[in-house]
Amino acid sequence: MEMGQVGYRTFRDGIKACVPTMLGYLGIGFAAGVVEKGVGLSILEIMLLSLLVYAGSGQFIICGLLAIGAPVSSIIVTVFLVNLRHFLMSLSVTHHFRGQPLLSNIGIGTLLTDESYGVLTTALQEGRPVTSPWMHGLNVAAYLTWFSANVLGGLLGQFIPSPERFGLDFALTAMFLGLWLFQVELPLKKRTRQTVTVLLTVGLALILLMRFSTAEIAVIGATLLGCLVGTLTEGSEVER
Questions:
Q1: How far is it, in rounded angstroms, from Cα 84 to Cα 31?
Q2: Terminal CA-to-CA distance of the chain, rounded, Å?
Q3: Do the Cβ atoms of 31 and 172 come closer than 8 Å?
Q4: How would you class 81 by CB atoms within 10 Å of its CB: exposed for 0-12, middle for 13-18, buried for 19 or more?
Q5: Chain mean position to CA 233
Q6: Exposed, middle or buried by CB within 10 Å (0-12, 13-18, 19+), for 182?
C-alpha cells in the first residue's frame, strides 16, 4: 500500500478523519437543539428535523421563521435556496467517485455537508486518494453525531431559556469561519495569483449581488462566478 493512501481508504479511516467535525457538531448540534426546543418543537419533531433536514444553517433558519410565524411555503423556499449550495459541492467532487454504484453515490451526495466537504477537499488538495468507503465513514459519523447532539440539546434546552447569553446562536457562524480559514490556508501559503484573484472575485461579487438580490442568491451567484474565474485561470501560473 502506498504511503499516500494510508488513512484514506476504509470506513474506519473515514470515521477517524471525522473526529474534528464530530467535536464541532457536538457544540453546534446541541445549540440547534436548544434553539429548536425554544421555538416550541417537541423532541420527536427535533429528531425528524435533524434526520430529514440535516443542515445546521437550514435548521436555524427554520427556527427563526417559525418564531415569527412565517408561512410554510416561505420556510420551504428559503431553506431550499440556502442549501442549494450543496448541489454545487456535490457536483464539484462527483468525478472522484465515478464508476461507483449509483446507491453509493446517492449516499455520498445526500449526507455531504459543508464540513465533510471541507475534509474531503483538503484531502484532495494534499494529493491523497480517497475512496467511497472512506467517504461513507466520514459522512455517517458526522450524521449520527449531529442527530445525537440535536436530541441532547432538545432534552436539555428547557434548562437554557436564553441561548444567546452563552453565544449558542453564534456557534454555526463561528464554525463556518473556522472551516473557511482552514480551506484557504494552503492556497494562501502558496500565494498564487489565481487564489487571490478568485477570492477577490467572490468577495466583490457577493457585495454587488447582495444589493440587487437576496443573500442566498448572492452566495450562489458569487460561488458560480468564482468557479468560472478559477477555471479560466487554471494553469495560467506555475505555483512556486
A1: 23
A2: 30
A3: yes
A4: middle
A5: 26
A6: middle
Tell me the C-alpha distance between 12 and 114, whole Å. 21
The tens digit of pLDDT for each residue in 13-63 reads 999 999 988 988 888 888 888 888 888 899 999 999 999 999 888 888 888
List all residues 6 or more positions away from 21 whose beta carbon is below 8 Å from its beta carbon.
115, 116, 119, 138, 141, 142, 145
Rg (CA), the chain: 19
pTM of the model: 0.71
DSSP single-letter state for residue 211: T
pLDDT at 165: 62
Please count the residues of the chain: 240
Helix pair 56-67, 171-190: axis angle to 10 deg: 150
Cα(225)–Cα(191) distance, rounded to whole angstroms?
21
Using the predicted structure, report yes or no on whether residue 106 has a pLDDT greater than 80: yes
Query: Alpha helix locations (H) across the chain?
Result: 11-17, 19-38, 43-52, 56-67, 72-82, 85-93, 102-111, 114-125, 132-156, 171-190, 193-209, 215-233
Can you say how many angstroms the Cα of residue 28 is from the centroid of all Cα atoms in its chain?
A: 12
d(CA 59, CA 29): 10
